[in-house]
Each structure stands twice: as C-alpha cells, then as structure tokens.
C-alpha cells in the first residue's frame, strides 16, 4: 500500500496496519523526527531511514529508541510535556543499553599510550547518551505533571519520576563497572542532572528515607560531579536534614580514616555539610550564598554552639554583611556564651552616631546586658530611653521590653548611689517603669517576676507576694524561681511553715537536677525554725545531689544550671550552721572542705573570723575579716563584722567602725545587722537620737528579713 508523499522528498512505502483507522496524533508525530542536522527523517518500527535531503553521514540510521528520544526531547522543549511523556513511554531502556554498550565502550577514551578506537558514530551524539537523556527528561516530565495533578495522584507521579531517574543512574553504573567513567560531556551533564533530581523527586513523593539515601549516595558515589553541582546537593541535603523532621540513622561509611569525624545525628551531619560549603567559598571554589549562613546559624543554635557561629561570622569577608548586622549577630553570640563585655563592645560600635544609633534591637540587647551589672546600669538607662523614644507607637511589645529593661537598670542604679534621696527617687522610677511596661504586656511572666523582686527588696511584701503568685499561675508552677520568690517573701513575713510548704511544692514540681537552690532554701528555713538537725539532713540531700551531678557530667565542677548550688556553698552553709550551734570542730572540718574547693574566698575567711571571734581571739578575727574584705571589696558581712569588732575596742575606734558600717549600708541599705551595730556606735559616741533611728530601722528590717537575700533571685 502506498504511503503519503512528502513535499520535495522521495516516496517511501510503509506497511499498513490491519485496520484502516487513521493514525493517532502521537503516531503521526513518530513518523517525523528531527535529525542531529535538523533534517526530516521517517522511521519504521525497526530502523530509521534516511530522507533524500538528510545530512546524516552515509550508512548512519536512527533506531526506534533514538527516534523516540529525539522526538520526545523536541516536544519537551516546546513545552508539550504530556506529548513528550507519551513518546518517552515507548523507549525500552534496558534493551537500548544492552544494544548501545559496545558503541559506548568505543566512545570511552582509551588509556594513555593506546590509540583510540574509531566508532562508526563518531560524528554524532552517542546513542546511549541520547536515550539516557530521554529517560531523564521523562522523569522531569513526570515531576512537572505531578505538580499540576489532582491531590490523590501527586505522590504516584513523583514516585514514578524518582524511579525513572534512578534507572538512569543504575544504567550508567552497569555500563561502567570498572570504576568511575571518563565520559563525554553530554552524558556527564545528564548524570549530574539525574543525581540532583533523584532526592528531590523522592522528597516530593513523600519517601523521605529514600531521599536521605539518595543524598548520601550522590555525595559518596564517584559520579565526577562538578563543584557547583556538588555544592547545590550539599546545601539541599543540609536543609533537608534540618527541616524535614525525619530522623535518619547516622551514615554508615564502608571505609573511613581512623579518627575522622562521623556525625551522630541529623544536626551534626547538616553542620558538617554547611561547613564544607563554607570552606569551598573561602577557597574561591563556589559562589557566596547567604542561606548557608542562615542554615548554619539555626543548626548551631540548636546545638548551643554560639561561639562556633561567631568564629564563622568573623571569617566572612568584609562586604558580604552590613557592618552593623554583623556586629549585632556577634553580640548575640558572645552574650550567649557569657562574654557580656565583648558583646557590649560590639553593640557600642553598632550604636555609634556614625553607624546605626537608633537600631531598636541593638539598643534593647545593650540595655539587657547593662541591666545585669551594677556598674553598667547608668549606661543601660540611656540605651533604654533611646529605645523607648524610637519605638513605633504601634509596637506595644517592643516598647514594653524597653520599659522593662529600663526598670531593671534603674533598680540596679539605685543600689550604687550614695544619697538616700537619690535612691528613693530611683526606686520610684523603677516601679513606674515596671507599671507602664506591664500595662502594655500584661501576661509577661519575666516582667511580673522582676516587679515582684523589686517590691520585695523595697520591703513591700504584700505586693511582692501578689506578684509571686501571679508568676506561678502564669508559668504553671514549672519555674523554680517563682516558688523561691514565694518562699522568701513568706519567710520575710515570718511565715516559715508556709514557706516550707511552698518549697516542698516546688521540689515536687522541679526536675531532680534543678533542685539545688530549693534544697538550700529548705535548709535555711529549718535553721530559722530552730530545727538544726533537719537542716543538716537537707544539706546532706544537697550534697548527694551535687555528687550525682558530678558523676553524671564527669566534671569536677558541680554547677549544672545557673541557679544550682555549688559544693563550696554547701560546705560553707554547713560551717555557718555548726558555728551557730557552737560545734567548732564540725564547723572547722566543713571550712576545710570549702577551702579545698576555693582557696581564696571572702565567705570562708568571714566564717573563720566569726569562729575566732567566738573564741575571743579578736586580733586574729579582725585579720581574717580584713583579708575577706581585701579579696572582695564589697563583701558586706565582712564590713559589718569589722565595724562591730572595732566598736568593742573603745572610743578611739568608733570613727573607723562608723565608716565601715556606713559603707556596708551604702552597698546594702536593708542589712539589719549593719543598722544595729551602727546604732551601737552612735550610742557609744553620745548620739542618742541617731542611735534610736538606727535601732528602729534594724527592728523594722528584722520583721521583714528573709532567710536568704532577695539578691540571690537576680
């Protein structure tokens, strides 16, 4: 039966099908294929035949798979994804690979010193490369169709795309079984694209474990990937490990260098990948990508490694980050590791009038740092006021934070001023700032807590008690410092049994490792209730906890949490307890234990001086107090003890005693023992009215004196 004639070409005959129905659209398209030179070629079921005008070399024909590969690529380039997929479906990959393997071997460059064999297809694209590219385009077509398909068919399309992509890589491996191939550029490009596409297709198909394995295979297999392709895979793999919520098993490397680092979990593996990418950038092998630093910041934050992050940020070349942004990030990192002075120095540079003086976040961070140190409180007040001024009126939360930190700075500043009038004004401003802040953010637990501590230090116990209860309600009783505040306020109101009930409730709600400060408080409550033996039992429980912490951490230091109690503090507390009971031998043993942990301590020297004074060895006691004062210039108990001891020495020592006691009250205005001994000094010096005022202040403070200073809460 005669076929249709092409315009300007020869007439060919093809075999007609059994039925007389017209060919389908796809069948019609299969009749015409663009050759490598752009000419029209007609195909049959077996071999492609050359047209009269074709520029293909003489004797070269296109077989069935090649014809479909060329036609499918043409349709894909036109955007006809479905038509391309129909054409690609007719390619038998395994049969094609077996047929093309000899020609591919001919195309593979020979070893050095051996002549290259000539292939009959040396003037055209290798047929295996053509077919493999077609299968890659097929998987890409399936992926595109999956994105635009109805919901219940999406995963099926993506899974099929992944399987097709995997077949490309499996075929390349089967053709080159003697190691990594040195293949032609076009085939290498197809391999690169397939390696990149495979894990993405598995992810979209919801097969996360297969995606994980594909990523690792891509990076560990010898695919001769170029640097940019490898870098893209590493970045995508790192993001997958961080954000996929899929916990994969650690990589099982068949061979590794002894002592090399093997990541134990997703985060460690992601950090390793990101650091490799950064190293490539430092060496100039890849382009800068800001997302790498964002991912690394997130990963190191999860691992609590801000110092490592700071080092990487410092290594980034100038011009990548704006200076103020870099300084702010470095300040956050150094503040997180406790290097507050370094963090503040970065913020000072950023907030310079020539840089970014009105950056709200930098101002708030600087204020927060200053609010934690007395000597920086004045600087913090200035930062806080600038932050409040430049905060937008609509941003109530940021303004509340500024007022909160302002209150903290004013509270710290009130403790270092010398004038009682100034102190009173600053305390009023502190409460005013807290009140304005809480009006903007009523349910901020930290704000409620800080306000409660300020009320307690100003001896407004009813207001402090109300804040403590609000904080416990706001946190559900899960934060131990709220219970401690409640117990201390109750102890200041002389309600020791209720304070002990609150402490026991806190112990029930608190994890074992966080019970140190509560057990210490319980011991002091027992002492206040004249139950010294029960206090000793509480200290024993505390020592057992510290020992367990040391064994679990493998460290000689017992501090695990910020509010935990060190072993030194326990022995010091026991020494003070035994000294109060006049058990001098036991007290001395405890002091030796404390001294072994910390050779030079004002608290230890003060306890030693107290024991010497109790034995009427006044000169030795005074020397011990002076040594304690020399180690810690603002150690209030030592100043009070020196003043009290000098008061007993006679009239000529009264001015010196008054000086020490007044200085102690400057540092701690609510120290009742300082007021008591200052009253005695005034009485011995003939100032009866001043003595009466001091005695009255001492009595009033004794009625609201907690078993532990409120300063321990901040």
Description:
Keywords: TPR repeat. Residues 116-125 have a biased composition (Polar residues). Residues 26-42 have a biased composition (Basic and acidic residues). The protein has 714 residues and is mainly alpha-helical. Among the domains are: 65-96 and 127-225, Serine Threonine Protein Phosphatase 5, Tetratricopeptide repeat (Alpha Horseshoe); 634-713, Serine Threonine Protein Phosphatase 5, Tetratricopeptide repeat, CATH 1.25.40.10. The chain has helices at 25-30, 64-78, 81-88, 93-107, 127-147, 151-175, 185-204, 208-220, 227-243, 266-282, 290-302, 306-315, 323-336, 340-350, 360-370, 377-390, 396-414, 420-440, 445-457, 461-475, 480-492, 496-509, 516-528, 532-553, 567-580, 584-597, 602-614, 618-631, 636-647, 654-667, 672-684, 688-702, and strands at residues 33-34, 40-43, 48-49. The protein has a three-stranded antiparallel beta sheet with strand order 1-2-3. Strand 1 and strand 2 form a beta hairpin. The chain is elongated. The relative contact order is 0.03. Residues 1-61, 102-124 and 555-562 have low confidence and may be disordered.
List the helices and strands and how they pair.
Layout: H1 25-30, E1 33-34, E2 40-43, E3 48-49, H2 64-78, H3 81-88, H4 93-107, H5 127-147, H6 151-175, H7 185-204, H8 208-220, H9 227-243, H10 266-282, H11 290-302, H12 306-315, H13 323-336, H14 340-350, H15 360-370, H16 377-390, H17 396-414, H18 420-440, H19 445-457, H20 461-475, H21 480-492, H22 496-509, H23 516-528, H24 532-553, H25 567-580, H26 584-597, H27 602-614, H28 618-631, H29 636-647, H30 654-667, H31 672-684, H32 688-702
Antiparallel strand pairs: 1-2, 2-3
Helix pairs in contact: 2-3, 2-5, 3-5, 4-5, 5-6, 5-7, 6-7, 7-8, 8-9, 9-10, 10-11, 11-12, 12-13, 13-14, 14-15, 15-16, 15-17, 16-17, 17-18, 18-19, 19-20, 20-21, 21-22, 21-23, 22-23, 23-24, 24-25, 25-26, 25-27, 26-27, 27-28, 28-29, 29-30, 29-31, 30-31, 31-32
